[in-house]
Amino acid sequence: MSVRVIPETEHLEFIRGRRSASFLQVPAWGRVKSEWRRESLGWFRDDELVGAGLVLYRQLPKIKRYLAYLPEGPVIDWEDEDLATWLRPLTAHLKQQGAFGVRMGPPVVTRRWSAAQVKEGIADDGVRRLGELAPLERGSVGARVVSQLNHLGWHPQAVEGGFAAGQPQYNFVVPLRDDAGDPRTEDDVLKGMNQQWRRNIKKAAKEGVEVTSVSGADVGEELKAFHDLYAHTAQRDHFTPRPLSYFRTMCEALGAEDPDRIRVWFARHEGDLVASTISIRVGGHAWYSYGASSTEKRDVRGSNAVQWAMIQDALAAGADVYDLRGITDTLDADDPHVGLIQFKVGTGGEAVEHAGEWDLPLSGALYKAFQLYLKRRG
Q: Which InterPro entries is this protein grouped with (predicted)?
């Protein structure tokens, strides 16, 4: 097995041949993260391309040494019982490029919990964390990946409440295929939702909430409407919003790569924007990426309406899963994060734990200095 730099066109063609790959591993994501240097890598067995990865290089202050980051990647055969075959040529290449450390997020599931289990956990005063519940399923591939990474000298990144410094370790997803692999219908998905969600979807329709969408490369001035509502949401919910320019770059880069890659959604009631979201799709995997909602007119249930429209769109596209992205692992009813989990649990999907992000120091001294720099930066 060998690793070398490949053209973005070859990288994209490989991704298109996969049923599922993270949108953080498509070539265009490197253009979104313009503050990082990007590189497309290919894994070759003889002359056959068998894996690909987007590497983002973050430079240390004042010296030309880098943290090499592969978010939710690379796209390789994680079921291989000898991961060293894949990872050793990767780290050798990155070291030649000046990397003092490597960070990656293997896209493998270690545990799953049903919506019913999560709901029961929240109601149980004796349960505080998702990990305290017996999982519906333990991922054998995920467990093997974790074991191999420990053996190969990789270090899991500490998480607090399920959120790592990079990508979330816990997500909430709605399967769009049944256990036999057949597509679920809209009725199937609706029946899996809780009564409150179904009622809210019906109420939004009765109130006359209208949902529209525009594709990534053609969002134009409509993106500002999303961002205005997003900034309002950030102020209300006390988080730091990304600038409009970030979303414009995101829509232009991903939309240029594939017209079906990214879409911006708007739920309006009597002309007032009450909810707006961004969805992304790669192959059979559809994501809810960003969302915003108005403080006024919450009773018309625009957030439920726009989510349902995105799920319907994913079903129509033949997607395998609708991914609502990150949740914390808290099930404490008094925790402010639990409301987000309850909203997502209402869709009737499942909570999934991934292997998380892992680091491999290539230069011990520089890696320690980098860790110290991050702590000081806060």
A: Acyl_CoA_acyltransferase, FEMABX, PG_Glycine_Bridge_Synth
